Amino acid sequence: IITDLNGAIEYVNPYYAEISGYDFDELIGHNANILSSGVQNKIFYKELWDTILVGDKWQGEMCNKKKNGELFWERAIISPIKNQEGVVTHFVGIKEDITEKIETEKKLRFLADSLEQVGECVSITDKDDIILYVNESFCKTYQYAKSELLGKHIGILQPEEITQDQVNDILSNTKKGGWKGELINKRKDGSLLPILLSTSVIEDDEHLQIAFVGIAMDITEIKKNRNELIAAKDRAEESDRLKSAFLATMSHELRTPLNAIIGFSDLISEEMTLDENLGFAKTIHKSGNHLLNIVEDIFDISLIESGHINIKNSQVILLDLLNEVLEVAKAEQKVLAKSNIRLNLVLSSAKEDILLWTDPSKLKQILINLLKNALKFTHEGHINFGYRIEKNKNSQCVRFFVTDTGIGMDKNKRSLFLKNSGKLMIHIPGSMVEQVLGCLFQKNSLNLWEERFGLIQNWVKEVRFIL
Fold first, then answer.
1. Rounded mean pLDDT of 455-460?
2. Whole-model pTM?
């Protein structure tokens, strides 16, 4: 386009006439502002005219309006034409229609602004996996600044655990249309994070692949919640299975004394001799005590596991507490008619003034239950109980023990007991139900103190419980 000093059009080529939508005759003689769109303000045009009127070249982008009112963008270079004396007489403008480019840039800016708002990590790489773009969420998740990622290979995010075969598989499927799956990536500090990655390919107008897009989501919390749900489901199923097995076992164990009580009660009559009725009564009494012990143990365990038992600590003289335990154990020994068993209190020190800060009733209950178990399942030999003082650099503690030469506990059941005592109930023979229930109570009671409960068995000689 060529205009005079006032902007009147003197010449346009056919291409410019075609772009503007005007006929050649409609443009010649008219001022160039016939094409003005109003998008640029007066200051814009003043600066343009000030530049070319002094003989300088102006270049830039402007929005003009076609004959039909449609806007179009052009990149223009406007230069002054001077005569032989160096005086500006005309202006020539060389213009390029960049409407499509401007529209594409607008769409890209809109897309980029949109991507900055999404919570997922968005990245764009070229065909060589060089990073061209990442959004803010990407930088925040991976702990990088944009400047640290742009121009770098995407492999900067891959931990050593990712093999080249995995990388090739992702790239191959991306080129075929896209890949989606879980993957492990690496943050800037080297920490690993699980992601859900979805990839796709960008093609140009000729359907040539020019770039790849990746959208990743940090699934750390999702995987954690998923694992917790699976674990909760497994625990629920295991709890249901154990409950059923426990009820089946306890059903049998409760029926045994109940059947004895009912059966021998039916046998008592005036037709039987006094000695026979007394024998039946003793059996009923023994079965009743057996049933009571089972029920009490189950009740105590339930209270502890439900958190309804509280620790009430107070100062207690150790020797006095142990002597009380010994008296109860001797009384149980007489009831069980096991005078042949040597019951010994073993003291670590001759001192009688050792003071403990503990819950005396709970500690006595634990020791008494262990001793009762030992008496029930020991038929010859001895039962020793007592304590020893263990010292370390900064403190000392009292370690209690109960040792017997009874029937012991099978190795497999012993390991199950120490790992998870609740599961043992479905494996034990009937004769050992009270033994294990008692152990469960001791173990769970000590959990209230956050203390340890151990079992050491020398299969030939003795079994020792330590707390």
1. 38
2. 0.41
